[in-house]
Amino acid sequence: MILQKWKQCGAAVQGVDHIHANVPCQDNVAHAAMNGVYAIALSDGGGSRKFSHIGSEHATKAACELLVQKFDTYYSILDQIKGGDPKADKLLLRLRLEILDAVLSAMRAQTTAERTLYDFGCTLQFTAVKDGRYIVGHVGDGVIAALYQKGLSRKVEVLSHPENAGAPNVTFFVTDHDAEAHLRLSHGECRQLEGILMMSDGPEEVLYTTAGGMHKNTQKLFDNYMGHGRAEYTAALEKFLKGNIAKHSYDDLSLNVLYLETADYAALSPEYKQEVLEGVTAKNQVRHISSYACLLDPSTPAKGADDLSFLRC
Asked: Which residues lie below 8 Å from residue 45, measured CB to CB, with a gap of 6+?
């Protein structure tokens, strides 16, 4: 049996400069899955903001929680905007403000007399997929890329470019007074989409150029996830960031991956078979793609316990 399943994995490591200065890692990654929605987010805390590591932590969590709750509503609004609704500009502004308000509310809950919202300044990337559709949002620098299967070839393309006013070390934060003007939103169908990759501006320096797009080796960040569990691949991403990317960037480094794995169950290791089937106990969590392939969705609450032995064929 061929099984498909959305997988989420991310890592954030302290940059060389912050190690020497004893400054905490200001990058954060998060993920969430609920009712068929799979969301990931990444945030790079501003180096000039004292508590940006707290801001980035709560910004990513809030973005993921919001997306799994309101994916359908937001997708419908973005469809209206793209379709030329007479009130498109107002709808877009209202949507941007609603998303930012949810993120900022989570951050405000962490403020004290010693740490203000200004101190939490950070960028934000987020994406979610559901039922063959995706939503992407981006404030600031860093890159969001996607892996597509096109014919017999596979290619990584940029979904969202960095915004830094054309200058290095300049970017935009969700805490800026005009953040809504810099929240870029897009959506579409997941035709031939196999995965989405987010990176902060540290890995961006190595894996992306404005002229050439993504480095050809970026695809390996998806391919190497195949057949491996989240804990194992998190360790691999951390090793890659510390051992490879850190040679070229002294900044904090983070990556977050959302990947649709397609695997032959019979060819998997015993340990990985357990992880692939983890959380899947009912037929309502299984969608037949063809007579020999199924999509597994453990984010959907199970309706009872069924005989799923057919998945192990």
From this structure: 26, 27, 28, 52, 53, 55, 56, 120, 121, 122, 252
Q: Domain count of the chain? A: 1
Listed in sequence order, the residues at least 6 apart from 235 whose beta carbon sits closer than 8 Å to its beta carbon are none
**Mean pLDDT, 10 residues at a time, the chain of 313 residues:** 96 94 95 97 95 98 98 97 92 98 98 96 98 97 94 91 77 96 96 95 94 94 94 97 95 97 92 91 95 95 92 84
| Cα–Cα distance list, 73 to 67, 85, 168, 191, 301 (Å) | 10, 16, 36, 21, 20
- Hey, CA dihedral for 245, 249, 254, 260, is it positive or negative? negative
Q: Which residues pair with 103 in a beta bridge?
A: none
CATH value at residue 168:
3.60.40.10
Asked if the structure places residue 85 within a domain, the reply is yes
- Angle CA 7–11–16, to nearest 5: 165
pTM over 0.90: yes
Give, in order, the Cα–Cα distances in Å from 161 to each of 8, 28, 157, 244: 22, 19, 10, 22
Q: What does the alpha-carbon distance between residue 162 and residue 233 come to, in Å, rounded to a whole number? A: 26
Q: Give the count of beta carbons closer than 10 Å to the beta carbon of residue 21.
A: 9
CA dist 42 and 60 (Å) reads 6
282 belongs to a structural domain: no
Do 276 and 294 meet the contact criterion of CB atoms below 8 Å apart? Answer: no
Residue 306 lies in a domain: no
The residue range of the domain holding 59 is 8-266
116 falls within a domain: yes
Beta carbons of 312 and 291 less than 8 angstroms apart: no
